[in-house]
């Protein structure tokens, strides 16, 4: 299903071929029972989270979502395309690239759009809607936390390691030993 106000089939005038119809909507990632799709709508594109069973739109954001690369090798956390979409443990929030979706309210936030905005790649989100990731590109990346309700990114201390995943009661951190050995560290939260 196309999001409200978006055409499921686009009509384009192609020189030499006349009017052509092409399907709109392209899946760019999936997490749990949800697919994330990009839809073309003038003047800005829309990202939408869809229920995999029904195709129903669960949340939208007025911006693009990055493609997800599903490689068979060890993921590279420095490549934003290799960061997978993630759900909060309670299933209410979903992050994809620089976008946070609240599946309860149906609203999505574009954290890395706007004037002077840095590119943000979010890797995890908690039950309270706080997402964690990195801002910037290449070697100049700053750890950040982002609120799902406001979309505001707050820089974290430079030495902070952000969780690569959040589970009920714990954070999961990925470290690399050398270039080909991945280790997972799981830290339980304090009560």
SSE blueprint and pairings:
Layout: E1 9-14, E2 18-23, E3 26-31, E4 34-39, E5 46-51, E6 57-61, E7 86-87, E8 93-96, E9 99-102, E10 107-110, E11 120-125, E12 130-135, E13 142-147, E14 153-155, E15 165-167, E16 170-177, E17 181-188
Antiparallel strand pairs: 1-2, 3-4, 4-5, 5-6, 7-8, 8-9, 9-10, 11-12, 12-13, 13-14, 15-16, 16-17
What this model shows, in words?
This protein has 191 residues and is an all-beta fold. The protein contains no helices and 17 strands. The chain has a domain at 21-69 and 76-158. It has strands spanning 9-14, 18-23, 26-31, 34-39, 46-51, 57-61, 86-87, 93-96, 99-102, 107-110, 120-125, 130-135, 142-147, 153-155, 165-167, 170-177, 181-188. It is globular and about 60 Å long. The model has no long low-confidence stretch (mean pLDDT 84).
Strand content: over 45%
- Spans of at least 5 consecutive residues with low confidence: none
Q: How many DSSP-defined strands?
A: 17
* Order of strands across the main sheet: 3-4-5-6
Largest sheet: 4 strands, antiparallel
The run of helices and strands is EEEEEEEEEEEEEEEEE
Overall body shape = globular
N-end to C-end Cα span: 42 Å
Approximate helicity band? under 10%
What Rg, in angstroms, do the CA atoms define? Answer: 18 Å
**What oligomeric assembly is this protein in?**
single chain
Q: What is the SS-derived class? A: mainly beta
The DSSP helix count reads 0
* Mean pLDDT across residues: 84
